[in-house]
Amino acid sequence: LGLALYASSLCAVSGGTLLYHDYCVIGAGPAGLQAAYFLQQAGRDYIVFERSHAPGSFFALYPRHRKLISINKQYTGKSNSEFNLRHDWNSLLSHDRRLLFRRYSRDFFPNADTMVRYLEDFASLLKLRVQYNTAIIHVTLEKNEQAWNGHYFLLTDQDRKNYKCSCLLVAAGTWVPNVVNFPGSEYVEGYETVSINPEDFAGQTVLILGRGNSAFETAENILGVTNFIHMVSRSRVRLSWATHYVGDLRAINNGLLDTYQLKSLDGLLEGDLEDLAIVKDKKGKLHITLRFYLENRNISAGIDSLTLPQDELDNFATRAPYDRVIRCLGWKFDFSIYNRSLRIMPGKGNIKKYPQIKPSYESRGTRGLFILGTASHSVDFRKSAGGFIHGFRYTTRAVHRLLENRHHGVPWPSTVYPITQLTNSIIKRVNEASGLYQMFSVLADIILLRENATAFEYLEEYPTGVLAELEMQTGRKAHSGLFVIIMEYGRNFSGADKDVFYYSRAVGEAQHAWQSNFLHPVIYYYKHLPTEREMRLRPPDWPLPRPNAIHHIVEDFLTDWTAPNAHILPLRRFLENCLGTDLRNFFAESCFLFAFTHQKLPPSCQQGYVGMQGVVGSQELRQHAVQAGLLQDYTRTDFLGDTPPDSHDGSQEQLMRDHGIPVRPLQHLVNAKDE
Predict the structure, then answer these.
(1) Could you tell me which InterPro entries the record lists for this protein (predicted)?
(2) DSSP 8-state code for residue 355
(3) Lowest mean pLDDT: which of 152-156, 213-217, 296-300, 457-461?
(4) Is there a domain that residue 425 lies in?
(5) How far apart are alpha carbons 401 and 45 in whole angstroms?
(6) Do the beta carbons of residue 286 and residue 323 sit within 8 Å?
């Protein structure tokens, strides 16, 4: 069948007209629309294909019980829009302030129908180029040395129309239900079709296969009307507050844990689903047994002729028959439409539901094919938020920036600052940046030092997994060392078996910052850009190779890293040690003194005072500096002649006298300069 489909598609391609675009995007869900926005802002030639009549078709059906688990925090106490995105898990990135999700719903956990309406408005208000009712059913390659990546992508839709593009962005998500086949699996109802009316379950006994949010969401809906609910899965329950992974069980859905632990009939079991078997009796009841009990047995002969586990173990946990069995095992990527020439392969182990991709989100098998959105979650599965809107809105932007540099010669956006702004720049970003906060350990800010550390270049939210390729991927140079700023949890703080509420779980003193458990900024310093080999050999669970120096900013209960002594001072001293320079800011009087007593002025004096940009001392400013212990109190010293105490010239002369520096008339200095 696959060969026939491939042959027919080749015939169609060879005989029909190909509609060309530089970029083709498959899927008009959140990731597809986010990619379209960036492409449109850059003025690129693109098209988005959506199989449904409207964007966000996944949310038109899921979650079945219509309550999202992505938070929509209305108030944070701050007006900074970038900071507020840290607590807005539904909005896509755009310049239009109307397209913030909080303008669509005030619910902390919004309704999925609101998400559908939001995505429709996002596409229409921004006039994104989406072609609806177009299901791409086959994708293959056409070799061509003139193409960007050495080949074109050929797409065929359900009407046998053909499209051709240079770069393919797959944002179709994971929507194919995971199904486990075992004897009797035909009696199992799927999450995608099961009734959501609680009254349909009144007085019934239910078994749920699965242990994720969809399973617990289903249980929560019928908890009050069933006889009891049992839930079975291969792995133990993982609570999101323990794992710090938003895809694990959220508190909004965990009512069954209460009824299980408080012995109200419901319960959880662990077991491999492939070892199960279901036998239906004459009354329509479903009996759970194990596959090996049915080996060499005739199931059609009836349940009375079969040996069940309870026949040998009379307290077998699932000996009571069930009225219904519901499958809630999540979804997987649809590999079926991609020709073998694209070499899109599933991952291994617990990421086999995702396609194999590089840390740059490009397919491992085909150059120019990028996976966006939920299907790209293999890069940070169970580590960060890349499988959810509040994560992949940033990784999609990162992919766009990589493509801009690769295909259009547009370097990664950056800003150059004088070295005196290094501490302030870092403090500003760690306190407000949403991309670093949501995609912790995956996206990083990069600071590229200029020669002699007189200035630096700041790049925001670069994928850490391709740090070794930074110069090639960004068009920026890293000749003089670099700092990498990321957010991290403590090394041993997250896990299904961790007690995250133990008494001394938080660190409050700067000298113990490296032991911080909660999310906090970490700065890595490298004298040279790490190599690919160093990236491969990095320590387990480290996002980056071992640096030349590392600094943890101590965790903060308010996630506000602006305390002068606990946060800023240790950071500045770390930066000074790495650079071998003084990053303090000085008053004009101090710079004037340093000019006569030091061979090298601090950077703030070089870039400020010497450039005639220093702050001229006034009575109020000088008094503030004295009270802070930054200057001596020269106002108590007798000044020569009639010069008032707040005279700038007089204070400089007195400062020199206090330090034993001879004071010569200004005219003498001018003459000496002329000589």
Answers:
(1) Auxin_biosynth/cation_transpt (IPR050982), FAD/NAD-bd_sf (IPR036188)
(2) B
(3) 296-300
(4) yes
(5) 16
(6) yes
Look at the chain and report how many structural domains it folds into: 3
Query: Cβ distance 25 to 158 under 8 Å?
Result: no
Query: Is the residue at 3 inside a domain?
Result: no
Contacts of 445 (CB under 8 A, 6+ apart): 426, 429, 433, 436, 458, 459, 460, 461, 462, 484, 485, 486
Residues 134, 207 share a domain: no
Q: Specify whether the CB–CB gap between 56 and 119 falls below 8 A.
A: yes
Which residue in the block uniquely carries the two structure tokens 């507020």? Answer: 84
Q: Are 579 and 597 in contact (CB under 8 A)?
A: no
Cα dihedral 94/95/96/99 (nearest 10): 20
Domain that holds residue 571: 414-579
What is the pairing mode between strands 276-280 and 286-290? antiparallel
Q: For residue 358, with 0-12 CB atoms within 10 Å meaning exposed, 13-18 middle and 19 or more buried, which class applies?
A: middle
What tokens appear for 370 in the block? 């990028």
What proportions of the chain, in percent to the nearest 5, are helix, strand and coil?
35, 20, 45
Q: What DSSP string runs through 222-288? A: HTTTSSEEEEEESS---BHHHH--TTSB-GGGTHHHHHHHTTSS-EEEE--GGGEEEEE-TTS-EEE
Rounded to the nearest integer, the mean pLDDT of the chain is 88
User: Tell me, what's the pLDDT at 655?
Assistant: 47
Whether the bond between 645 and the residue before it is cis, its omega within 30 degrees of 0, is no
**pLDDT of residue 342 exceeding 80:** yes
421 vs 432: CA distance, rounded Å: 17
Q: Pick the last residue of a domain from 547, 579, 611.
A: 579
Q: How far is the C-alpha of 286 from the C-alpha of 324, rounded, in Å? A: 7
From its phi and psi, is residue 507 left (phi > 0), alpha (psi between -120 and 50) or beta?
Answer: beta
CA dist., res. 199 & res. 222, Å (int): 8
Same domain, 561 and 428: yes
From 472, 418, 469, select the one nearest 447 (Cα to Cα): 418
Between strands 324-327 and 189-190, the pairing is parallel
Q: What's the whole-number mean pLDDT along residues 630-652?
A: 53
Do 235 and 371 share a domain, yes or no? no
In this prediction, residue 635 carries a pLDDT of 56
Q: Which structure tokens are listed for 670?
A: 């001018």
Encode 592-649 in three state secondary structure. HHHHHHCCCCCHHHHHHHCCCCCCCCCHHHHHHHHHCCCCCCHHHCCCCCCCCCCCHH
Give me the CATH number covering residue 88: 3.50.50.60
Tokens of 85: 């995105």
Instruction: Give the residue from 528, 555, 579 where a domain finishes.
Output: 579
- Which are the contacts of 631, defined by CB distance < 8 A and separation ≥ 6? 587, 589, 590, 622, 625
List b or e across 461-482, with b for residues whose CB sees 16 or more CB atoms inside 10 angstroms: bbbbbbbbbbeebbebebeebb
